Amino acid sequence: MVHMYFCEKCNELTDTNVCQKCGGQTRVPNDSDLCFVCDLDDFNRSMYVDALSNNDVPFVAMPVHGGFSQMNTPNSYNIYVRYDSYVKATEILNTIFSVKENEIKNVDDPSSVIDRAVKVIVDRPKGSVHHEHPDIVYKLNYGHVEGVMGGDGEEQDAYIIGVHVPLQRLYEFYGYVIAVIVRKNDVETKWVVAPVYGGVSPYIPKFTKEQIAEAVNFQEKFFDIEIVM
Prior knowledge:
The chain has helices at 42-54, 86-97, 110-113, 209-220, and strands at 5-7, 12-14, 34-40, 60-63, 77-82, 117-124, 141-149, 155-160, 172-183, 189-194, 225-228. Helices cover 18% and strands 30% of the residues. The protein is of the alpha+beta class. It contains 4 helices and 11 strands; from the N terminus they run βββαββααβββββαβ.
């Protein structure tokens, strides 16, 4: 780690003896100094602090003043950790939020898709109603994989599993494809994407075929499907 200096006013670390944020004098940090790591919205804050807890990293999550969301939660949180945990905390942060999308060579071949990192743009949040079939209520967040064309000539559809709160429309969700739903009586497939949790050694939540089938049944019950993992 590069030699760091600490600003008591901003709780910021810097590599100079002058704070880049307030211009004040900095000092050599103590292990117990509470250092700013990042600012995250409520959903990403929840995922990050879970990972910190799983890796035994103490933290403080402070709500940022300036309004609340429609769900009456703060718009964002500042995350702080002790200086002696700062390196581990930033490694965990980079592991979770630096997922690089992998090239998909053949969307029709599940082996080319599973375990690939993708970005899903949320079209239909959990709890929303299908625009053409009002009897279908989405039990999962659902969207499309940007830049990947599916069998129906539209961008590839994907279910997001393992996230229990509704995500906003157009939210950019990064995760890994854990399964492909092959519709035997349709031209398209559906991908199942799970988030990344953990820290230095991240893990993807494990789901069985039976659990996936139950989770997507609200829509896939109308098709003859095979789940490939």
